Structures are given as structure tokens and as C-alpha cells.
Predict the 3D structure of the following.
Amino acid sequence: MRITSDATLWLEQGIDSLGENLQPLSSFVLPGGKESAARIHVARTVVRRAERTVAALAEAQNLNPEILKYLNRLSDLLFQMARVQNKDGKLDILWKPGGV
């Protein structure tokens, strides 16, 4: 399948839809909460790693620029999905600066 702007737009619409009931964040979210959310956070880290790998490859050869946009939006969609799994963010584990 060739990644197109339509595929990226579909992800963006999913992000917007999932985010409708989420409170804005004032801190970073740490992986955790419900097990399903934690597993989605792991999937998100895998997508971020793929994004970094593709970015490095794009420096060496000509690639479809939509691939990087797609991977970036996919990781954002997974982030929203994890927050929804955590009862719309109520079970999110927030990073506290200087905390242990």
C-alpha cells in the first residue's frame, strides 16, 4: 500500500474524534494506567522508533515524504487511544518534575 495524504488525514480525524472528551494536558503522560493503555503506549514507542529509522533512511535516499507524516500521526493516534483506555485520561500517570 502506498501511503497518501488521505491516509494521514484519516489518522488526524481519528485523533480529533478520540480527543473530544479528553482534558488538555499540563504535564507529560507516562506509560501506564490500565494494562490495555500500557500496551498501546508500547506500540506507540515502536512506531516512534520506526519514525526515527525512516527519518534516517530519508536522509540517504528519496522517500515518499508522506511516510514520516503518517508515522507521526499514527503515534499520536496511539497516544489518544491510550488516554481513552485510561478512562479518558483519568487514570493517566502524569510526570511530576523532580518526582521519584
User: Anything to note?
Assistant: The longest strand covers residues 29-30.
